[in-house]
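Box 3.1 A note on notation
Throughout this textbook, protein chains are presented in two layers. The first layer is the amino acid sequence; the second is a C-alpha cell string describing backbone geometry. Keep the layers aligned when reading.
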Amino acid sequence: LYKRCWDSGSYPDKYYPFPYVKFFKDKGFTVVGGSCTRFVNSIYPEYYELYPNIVKFNRVIKSNKELGVVNTSWDSTGVPFEQTWLGIVSGAEHGWSNKEVAKDDFTWRFIYQFWGIDEPRLIEPVHKLGDLINITNHVKDTRRTPRFCKEMLSMFNEVLPRINKNRISFQLMIIAAKLIEYLAQKDEVIDYIQYRLFYDRSHELEQQRKECLSKLRELQKSFAMLKKEAIEILEQSVVSSDLVSGSTFRFKTIEAEQEILV
C-alpha cells in the first residue's frame, strides 16, 4: 500500500524522501510541505540538517506538482530570529527557482546580498557552526571544536568591520561561536575531572580538584561577560521579557549547569 511512495527501485540505497506527500496526493488531498529553519533548543541553527530539509521538501513538492511549502521557524528553540535568515531565504530560493541551486552558490549570494560582503570564507562556518554542539549543551568533539572556534572567531572579527548590512545578525553569529567555544572549554574540564575521579587515586587528587574548581569559576566569569555582551546586542531587537526568561541562547540552562558543576 505504501511502498510506491518511498521505494525508488533501489531501496535501501535510495528512497523517495517525504513519502507522505505522494501518499496524500494519491488520496486526493492538496499537500503543503513544512520545512524548518530552527526546530530544537540550540545556540545556532542546525543548517547541516535544516538546509537539506528545506531543499528536499521543495524538490518533492515540485516533483509532485503540489501547492507549495511553508518554511517554519519555531520560536521556543532559544535561537534568535536574526540567525535564521539563511534558512528563510533558502526556502524562498528553492521554492521559487525552476532549477537546482548549488549550496555554495546560494550561500555566497546570501552572504553578498544579506551582509553586503564578498567573503567566500564564510560559506563553511554559516553551515557548520550549528553542528558543533548537541541539544544537551555539549560539544561533539572536545579536541577539534576549540581550535575550529578560535579560527572562526579570528576570521569573524576580521570581517566584522566590513559588514555594512544586517550587522546584528553577524554579531549574534559571533556570540554563538563564543558560546560554543565556552562550552568546549567547560566540557574539557568535565572530561578531566571524570577521568581523575575514576582513575586517579594519588595524593595529588585534592590539588587537581581545586585547580578544576578554579577553572570552572573562571569560566563562570567569562560566561557572565559573554552574556552581558550578547544582551547588549539582543536588546536592539528582542523584547526584554525574552531576555529575562533566559531562553535566548540557552542562558538559563547554561547558568543552572554551571551552579551544579561548581
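Residues 167-199 form the longest helix (33 residues). The longest strand covers residues 32-36.
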